[in-house]
Specification:
Length: about 70
């Protein structure tokens, strides 16, 4: 079954995560990066959306970053 071909399958969303620092000052990030949203009452991290390629970066004060919405490498 593993070698069977599925023509209808396509990549819809790739998620990548990692740690880029020991800590990140989310307020400084939100103030200096245009389009970066920070609303800690709704979400515990900053959200930076990119139009091309369309994706979102979720940035946390712990230094962790999650990239989501990527459609190809």
């Amino acid at each position: 079954m593993a070698d069977q071909q599925y023509d209808s399958l396509k990549i819809e969303n790739i998620v990548a995560s990692g740690v880029i620092a020991d800590s990140i000052d989310l307020l400084a990030i939100a103030e200096h990066i245009e389009g970066c949203e920070l609303n800690t009452k709704r979400f515990p991290g900053a959200v930076y959306r990119i139009k091309d390629p369309k994706m979102a970066s979720l940035i946390f004060s712990s230094g962790k970053v999650v990239l989501t919405g990527i459609k190809n490498e």
